[in-house]
Amino acid sequence: MASVDVTVRGGGIFGLSVAWACARRGAKVRLIERERIGAGASGGLVGALAPHAPESWNEMKGFQFDSLLMAESWWREVAQAGGEDPGYLRSGRLQPLADARAVDLARERAEAAKTLWRGAALWQVQEATGAEWEPASPTGFLIFDTLTARLSPRAAGAALLAALRATGAEIVIGEGRDEGQVIHATGVAGLGDLSAALGRTVGSGVKGQAALLRHDARDLPQIYAPGLHLVPHANGTVAVGSTSETQWSEPGPDRQAHDLIARARALLPCLARAEVLELWAGLRPRAKSRMPLIGAWPGREGHFIANGGFKTGFGMAPRCAELLAALVLADEDGIPPAFRPDALA
């Protein structure tokens, strides 16, 4: 009898989530992370679990919506299992509206949300109040939605790690041996490996930068403006992100990180004197489809892929993990066809 049913390679959000989904089903799990938990994009700062706009509905938007709805109970179970708080809160989000056309479009989306969001959350247009934690809006109107949530990326990783250890899962930092079914959740490097195996590019890394400021807005909504996301966290900090760079001269934080801070302070004057605690930069894995890559590795029996969570990884991870665990452990295939690696092969 095998000592391990499933080996998961990669200690980012997809790897940890899939390992947990397998462990909670009773599987014996070995997780191998070559460097450290959250070494890649999952060790960032922002942690926004944000929905797509409620319009032009498609399989991807519906999948993400369902994943965001299941997130609260899923993360609560993780916290209860391991005793670590992932910093989850369904905090909502405010967005300023630039002109009359933007207001009209937002109102159209509010009507669409009544149907597409099935009464589970609101997307509404409301008047600005001038509150300190509120972006100035040229029209005097803001979008507010009640679906957007947040968690702390690093705290979420620690919570999943604690939950895995509570189940008796084996955690290997460094080199380890594959045994049982093998799930590859290795981010940008994994996209390179899959591309080489298939003989075609299936994805690449996109550089993202973010900053962390000391400002206590822990129970207040996130704020979104074009190219800028401000996410209050439970520890009295605000994460500011993020860039999306396909070309860069250096891997670490650069002037664009400082530009994020300047724009955040212009949007919210209450951040003008907030201490900068950290600048962060990393590569986020983006599949050519812009969707997650979840499913069997084409032509490699017993091997599976969990990758490509560009911008939506933390929000999509719970549902992606549960579906992949069902496929690996019970041969139950509920994964959307567009998410499967063979769709890019």
UniProtKB/TrEMBL annotation:
**What SUPFAM superfamilies does UniProt report for this protein, alphabetically?**
FAD-linked reductases, C-terminal domain, FAD/NAD(P)-binding domain
Q: Keywords for this entry?
A: Oxidoreductase
Principal EC category: oxidoreductase
User: From the UniProt record, which GO molecular function terms apply?
Assistant: glycine oxidase activity
User: What InterPro entries does this protein's entry cite?
Assistant: FAD-dep_OxRdtase, FAD/NAD-bd_sf
Gene3D superfamilies for the chain: D-Amino Acid Oxidase, subunit A, domain 2, FAD/NAD(P)-binding domain
What cellular component terms from Gene Ontology apply here? cytoplasm
In what residue span(s) does the FAD dependent oxidoreductase domain sit? 5-327
Query: Has UniProt tagged this entry with the keyword Transferase?
Result: no
The source's superkingdom equals Bacteria
Reported EC number(s) for this entry are 1.4.3.19
Keyword Oxidoreductase among UniProt keywords? yes
In Swiss-Prot or TrEMBL terms, this protein is called: Glycine oxidase
From which source organism is this entry? Pseudogemmobacter humi
The organism that produces this protein has a lineage beginning with: Bacteria, Pseudomonadati, Pseudomonadota, Alphaproteobacteria, Rhodobacterales
